[in-house]
Amino acid sequence: MKLLKTLKKGDFVIFAIILIMAIICLVPFISTQTDQLICEISQDNKIIHKIILNKGYKDKITIETQNGNSVICIEDNSVWFESSDCPDQVCVHTGKLTHAGQIAVCLPNKVIVKLIGQENQIDAIAT
């Protein structure tokens, strides 16, 4: 109670402004709108599949190369290498890709899987 008596009206205004600014900064992070993800699969630097990821969508794609096969699984909003005939298995151990900008690569088979988000956010503001 003693603290409330020592605070002046201007202190409450400053506190309110700081609180409003903090809420404005948090809005993009707590937004419920999810960006639609696009899975782009390339082989030998050529795009061979472009798939829009949706809830409930499932697919298994087998890519045949000179060095063996790569099996890519797609389920809901994630994609991953299920198996590959490459010796090191780095692509398989990468795990599930779930966010825009993530990428998994099988170098021996020359297969690239990446997730792209649709551009609906502002990247920068010009002044």
From TrEMBL:
The keyword Transmembrane applies. This is NusG domain II-containing protein. It comes from the Bacteria. Pfam families: NusG_II. The chain crosses the membrane at residues 12-30. Keywords: Membrane, Transmembrane, Transmembrane helix.
